[in-house]
Amino acid sequence: MRVLGIDCGGEFTGYGVVEQDQDGRLLPVAYGAVRLNPKRPFAERLSQIFHELTQVIERHRPQVAAIEEVFYAVNAKSALKLGQVRGVALLVASECGLQIAEYAPLSIKSAVVGYGKADKLQVQLMVTRLLRLDAPPEPQDASDALAIAICHLHTAGTLARQAVQGR
């Protein structure tokens, strides 16, 4: 299975494509971030996210997009903008025919680090280890996107094993 993880953000929207082989090994396919210019109009930034994520999907052909769920934000204006970025990411995935899975931040951290309140550095270090990378993924948003993809692969694997045992 090949999964596209998307970490939505107003300045950087991270993406990470991870594949799991038949032996259960996690393989990094691609990762990076859509780097947005905060001086550009917001509508243009949303359009940039749409087009660049579409290119990532066309290039790497994932079957599933995994996206972080909306979380509590102190600043309402930031939360609204993040929601709009998430909407674009969901739209891209849907328009490209991908299955979509959404995960809470606590679930992502638990699946990758084993602790739901892990900090960003702990997540980045565990992603580096799980994917056997020479260096931590940069920017941080790419690392977070890879963590979201890994979370989906772990979750999908567990659900598949439970379905087999339940028969």
Brief synopsis:
The chain is an alpha/beta fold and 167 residues long. It has 5 helices and 5 strands.
Features:
5 strands, about 170 residues, about 50% helix, 5-stranded mixed beta sheet, Nucleotidyltransferase, domain 5, single chain, alpha/beta
Structure commentary:
With 167 residues, the protein is of the alpha/beta class. It has a single domain, classed as Ribonuclease H-like superfamily/Ribonuclease H (Nucleotidyltransferase, domain 5), CATH 3.30.420.10. The protein contains five helices and five strands. The protein has helices at residues 42-60, 76-95, 105-112, 120-130, 140-165, and strands at 2-7, 12-20, 26-35, 64-68, 99-103. The protein has a five-stranded mixed beta sheet. Helix 3 (105-112) packs across helix 5 (140-165) and helix 4 packs across helix 5. It starts with a strand and ends with a helix.
Strand-helix topology:
Elements: E1 2-7, E2 12-20, E3 26-35, H1 42-60, E4 64-68, H2 76-95, E5 99-103, H3 105-112, H4 120-130, H5 140-165
Parallel strand pairs: 1-4, 4-5
Antiparallel strand pairs: 1-2, 2-3
Helix pairs in contact: 1-2, 3-5, 4-5
**Helical amount among residues, as a percent range?**
40-55%
Mean pLDDT value? 92
Low-confidence stretches: none
Domain tally: 1
Report, as a whole number of angstroms, the end-to-end distance: 22 Å
The count of strands amounts to: 5
Tell me the CATH topology.
Answer: Nucleotidyltransferase, domain 5
